Amino acid sequence: MIEQFNKDSLFCEYYKCWVSIYKEGAIRPVTLQKYKMTISWLERLIPDVKLYELDRICYQKLLNDYALLHERQTTMDFHHQLKGAILDAVDEGLIERDPTRKAIIKGKTPKEKKPKYLNQFELHTLLINLNLSEKINWDWFILLVAKTGMRFSEALALTPKDFDFSKQLLSVNKTWDYKGNGGFLPTKNKSSVRKIQLDWQTVIQFSQLIKNIPENEPIFAHLNNKIYNSTVNDALCRTCKKSNIPNITIHGLRHTHASLLLFAGVSIASVARRLGHASINTTQKTYLHIIQELENKDVDLVMRSLSTLS
């Protein structure tokens, strides 16, 4: 298919073909959707640009036009999604020189971000204000994410079979296709398949809560015919407001879980395994601000320890 293109071919058509050949079936559907969104932006911004016309100025103008409507990080993602295809076109002689070289990434001023995580007191206040009824509801979901740091799709996919109450373990081995038509999907990566240790209180609560649910039936996914991330975030928002604490998202509870573990002295490697990160570098990058804060405390501790030696 890709052999049919020449220097006079439209870049957006080449890119569409490139995504079809190299990305479809090789990446997760949610990631593929991002590439398809990039295709739609190319058709909107440079529908008539041919491969031979894509020089550095043309490419920089494309990034600049995209950046007018997007934040810098989103523009950076757009750039990275294009770069692989462009470098292939350069290798094939369809584009004379790499137009992405020394590209300048711009973007709109970021919106004011919501707090990413709660402190220990705020989390405690949130949990005591949850409506933990005898039947499964979204407040039980909020509690479990806060106690385990699971991803939204991972928690939705949980079944009674995933709980090993005698060993206080919870197995994460699948996700729920909440963005599609429902049903189980593989985890985000191999490292996401893991076992999470549970505290005894959570074990006792959930052993009673799910005892009448068939072992392979999703515990939470049946609460709505169609599940949206916003549905659970709205429930969390109401409880945050009721608790008079900062409003965070379900993903913010994952950050809260990791942050509290790090502040408690749990190693970065252990936190990475518990969260299911593909690499410890992901954990370090995500929680760099906390790690730096802990390092500052370590410096103070080192200085105090050394001062006692004199």
H/E series: HHHHHHHEEEEEHHHHHH
Task: Give the full name of the CATH homologous superfamily of the largest domain.
Answer: Intergrase catalytic core
Q: Give, in spatial order, the strands making up the sheet with the most strands.
A: 1-2-5
**In total, how many beta strands?**
5
CATH fold annotation of the largest domain: hpI Integrase, Chain A
Secondary structure layout:
Layout (H helix, E strand, L loop, with lengths): L10 H12 L6 H17 L10 H12 L4 H20 L28 H9 L9 H11 L3 H5 L6 E2 L4 E4 L2 E2 L7 E2 L8 E4 L2 H10 L19 H15 L6 H14 L4 H8 L4 H7 L1 H20 L3
Antiparallel strand pairs: 1-2, 2-5, 3-4
Helix pairs in contact: 1-2, 6-10, 11-12
Description:
The protein contains 13 helices and 5 strands. It is mainly alpha-helical. It folds into 2 domains: 2-91, Tyrosine recombinase, N-terminal domain (DNA polymerase, domain 1); 120-295, Orthogonal Bundle (hpI Integrase, Chain A). The protein is globular, with a radius of gyration of 24 Å. The mean pLDDT is 91.
